[in-house]
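Forwarding these from the shared drive since the link keeps breaking.
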Amino acid sequence: MNKDTSLKIKAWMVLQEITPAALASELGVSRQMVSAWLRGKSDSRRIAEHLILKGCPRAYFRGTKYEEVRAA
């Protein structure tokens, strides 16, 4: 994930009052995993799917490997 995409997702999370720790708790993963994903240092289709399900705009994922992710 590139820096621009990451910044958009982080900004959306702030507006929705979703912290990386809360997201990690909801998914049963570590906060470090969520933070690494937000920095583009790890891959997790599950995190992308969860954010889309929570309302994160699909447009934010355009041009990334997560572009075709479907919300569960």
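-- next protein --
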Amino acid sequence: MVVLTTRSLDDPPPTGLEARAGDISEIAAELEAQGYCRIWIEGGGRVVQSQVAIGKLDVHELAMISVILGKGILLFQYAGAS
């Protein structure tokens, strides 16, 4: 399992887990070269936008999270968004 993160980890990830950061298109190309063809990605607006930008988003499932979690990053940019 590969976890994409912009945060540094205090401890090494558990066995079987790889933490990666960097250019999403390079990471996607590396995973494809390793034979991965179906990848499940979970994340917020920045993650979704990065996948759309490189043409790697085939299926999008949306879960609504309560506003009590605070203000987040917009999933989609649209006119009138603040």
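The chain has one domain: 2-69. The chain has two helices and two strands.

- D.
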